[in-house]
Amino acid sequence: MVKQPRILIVEDDATISEIVVRYLEREGFSVSTAQDGRVGLETALADLPDLMVLDIMLPGLDGLEVCRRVRDTAPIPIIMLTALGEETDRVMGLELGADDYVTKPFSPRELTARVKSVLRRAGGSLNGDTELTSPLTAGNIHVDVESREVQMDGEIVSLTAREFELLTHLMRHPRRVFTREELFEAVWGYTFGDTSTVTVHVRRLREKLESDPANPNMIKTVWGIGYRFDP
To answer: In this structure, what DSSP letter does residue 230 have?
Structure first.
């Protein structure tokens, strides 16, 4: 019997929470909820879910702080719910390690599609394609794709699901220049949206993998176009 992915919804609006739960359960997910940031954090850390949907504006403890504390413990996928126009909150959530965000008001179908996309990519390749599961090495970085483990100088580097997918995509195409739109489609699976998400994730990768993130040696910016990976 296939295990149902477990989703934790941390949202203080009971109506929104109920609608999201209904849609996700219809798609075969096991869903639990919390309406308070502190309770949501305790619930997540007591039994780590496969993915969290986390509102930013929460009583008790705001979603950004919940995200930060969860990230200190485990790299489980997190989708943030943000208010329309709150770009600062969106960027901060991504900086803290959120994998994706959905802006309120949102379509429950859109959120369900985002959940599926993040979980699919967090689970790695499911088709056994040798090219997609072969280890990747560049300089002092080694990536075991099947175990989704990244090492730098022999030390494990903790990456979120999206950071891992972005890194492996770039490493599989060394010296090729990608626009932000191309990376958004290849890694996030969306053909439209806010490509600043890509910019934030590139910055986070540099902070974790580059000796001097301000002057990167591997993940290079090609001005006016996008990014490329130089092994």
So the answer is: -
Classify residue 40: in a domain, yes or no.
Answer: yes
Segment (H or E) for 39: helix 37-46
Domain count across the chain: 2
27 in a domain, yes or no?
yes
What domain range is 141 assigned to? 130-229
Residue 1 lies in a domain: no
| 101 close to 133: Cβ distance less than 8 angstroms | no
* pLDDT tens, the chain, 231 aa long: 557 889 999 999 999 999 999 999 999 999 999 999 999 999 999 999 999 999 999 998 999 999 999 988 888 899 999 886 677 777 888 888 888 888 888 888 889 988 988 888 776 543 334 456 678 999 899 999 888 899 999 899 988 888 999 999 999 999 999 999 999 888 888 766 778 889 999 999 999 999 999 999 999 999 999 999 998
List b or e across 215-231, with b for residues whose CB sees 16 or more CB atoms inside 10 angstroms. Answer: ebebbbeeeeebbbbee
Any idea what DSSP says for residue 187? I
pTM over 0.85: no
The answer to whether the beta carbons of residues 50 and 29 sit under 8 Å apart is: no
Instruction: From 122, 150, 165, give the residue that closes a domain.
Output: 122
Residue at 23 is within a domain: yes
